[in-house]
Amino acid sequence: MNFIARFTSFLFIIFLPTLAFSAATGEQELLDLTSHTVGYLALAVFAAAYILVIFEEQLHLRKSKPVLLAAGIIWILIAIVYQQHGYDHAAEVAVRHNFLEYAELFFFLLVAMTYINAMIERGVFDVLRGWLVEKGFSYKVLFWLLGILAFFISPIADNLTTALIMCTVALTVGVKEPKFVAISCVAIVVGANAGGAFSPFGDITTLMVWQKGIVQFSEFFVLFLPSVVNYVIPAAIMHFFIPAGSPDPVDGEKLKMKRGGVVIVVLFLLTIITAVSFHNFLHLPPAIGMMTGLAYLKFFGYYLKRTVHKEADYSEDRFGQGVDFEATHPHSNNPEGFDVFAKVAGAEWDTLFFFYGVILAVGGLGFMGYLGLVSEAMYGQLGPTTANVIVGILSAIVDNIPVMFAVLTMQPEMSHGQWLLVTLTAGVGGSLLSVGSAAGVALMGQARGIYTFASHLKWTPVIALGYVASIYVHLWVNASHF
């Protein structure tokens, strides 16, 4: 079934709405290449690259590699055609526009990933995991705790990290109950995706909508109730299938947060506030605020490095050990030391380069004119509500990043409520299939053989019920936005 889903993903990607650069100067016209040989060749290149992305696990080929190459080839084709028509700099202007879009997203995500890596290294999430494991909750209580924590942590941390932490707990306590693990993983994916839908920081799609200025920071929170419904309805039904009883006590290691862990959490929240303030009050890109927040972490990292020797020496002298700290604690293995550049290096670089390839590749396809065709077919003929619901379904089959970029660049004529609707559907639609979100794909690898495409698929009707219900709740509760 996993192969069928990935092959279906390939079929849909060909018809995927694509990002376009719509700004044309008065000295040139945008060429319609949708029926040109170069246009067909570009589609074939992108489709071939995405086939390799679909079979990433089977080929053991990083997903960023094919899309990076495809992006370069597509823009080469565009540049050649435009030069043949006497427009020597048209491709340059267009690709700079797309690159700027990516640069803002890149630096924002890089800072967020660095902070998350720092919190992981300091043991912030390990302490939470240890607390859940040692409390001895019943399976049913644990099921709800894992889903609810995923729902409320993902708006701040990314849904991938959140899902992995919660899945670790499920695997630890459910070692004798694989059914509990399988159902909990489904609820964790749904909860993490739903929680990310009402926060600019919860998902890449919401981040793009916020950075584009279409939805303001505070306006995302009107999606809170629809997001709750999206999670609670399937979770309430799954509750009746959770095994009774409690897991055996787990004698785990006593997990302790490293020095500075709490401060880093506070600095991350302060960084978020800085980014929001830059956007709302100074009208500067949020990425600039995030980079300013990175300075907070770098200065604190400097403090940790300067004080770790003093604290370690003091600790050892108290017990009269007389041990030379430098001799016994080399920098590379220092458990209390802190290197901010190591946290930057630990960012998901494959994911960041994948975003680059997707944005530039689909940007090229859109520049050729394919965006106009799809926009007319979806929003012109079907209407915004139907089109936005379809966007959410597409997000379960293909990556929601290019889908949302396409919608943002289409800029279809629709009300503010419809923009909120597409933000909701693109965020939670990926829960319909295990391959529909980064959280689902990661959990299939972490709980291999227990949480699978098929085990998630049998709950798809229940998840779809929550998906539809969340849409109706949004149309009802937020009717004033339409």
Structure overview:
By secondary structure, this protein is mainly alpha-helical. Helix content is 70%, strand content 0%. It contains 23 helices and no strands. Helix 16 crosses helix 19. The N terminus is likely disordered.
Q: What's the mean pLDDT score?
A: 83
Rg to the nearest angstrom? 24 Å
End-to-end separation:
39 Å
DSSP helical segment count: 23
Secondary-structure element order, N to C: HHHHHHHHHHHHHHHHHHHHHHH
Beta percentage is under 5%
Name the poorly predicted regions: 1-28, 312-333
Structural class: mainly alpha
Helix content: 55-70%
Morphology call: globular
> Largest sheet, described in full?
none
Secondary structure tally: strands: 0
Task: Tell me briefly what this model is.
By secondary structure, this protein is mainly alpha-helical. It has helices at 2-13, 37-54, 56-59, 64-84, 90-121, 124-134, 139-153, 159-173, 178-196, 204-211, 224-239, 261-280, 286-318, 325-328, 340-345, 349-368, 370-382, 384-397, 400-410, 416-428, 438-446, 453-457, 460-477. The longest helix has 33 residues, at 286-318.
Topology (elements, then pairings):
Blueprint: H1 2-13, H2 37-54, H3 56-59, H4 64-84, H5 90-121, H6 124-134, H7 139-153, H8 159-173, H9 178-196, H10 204-211, H11 224-239, H12 261-280, H13 286-318, H14 325-328, H15 340-345, H16 349-368, H17 370-382, H18 384-397, H19 400-410, H20 416-428, H21 438-446, H22 453-457, H23 460-477
Helix pairs in contact: 1-2, 2-4, 2-16, 4-5, 4-16, 5-12, 5-13, 5-16, 6-8, 7-8, 7-9, 7-11, 8-9, 8-21, 9-11, 10-19, 11-23, 12-13, 16-19, 17-18, 18-19, 18-20, 20-23
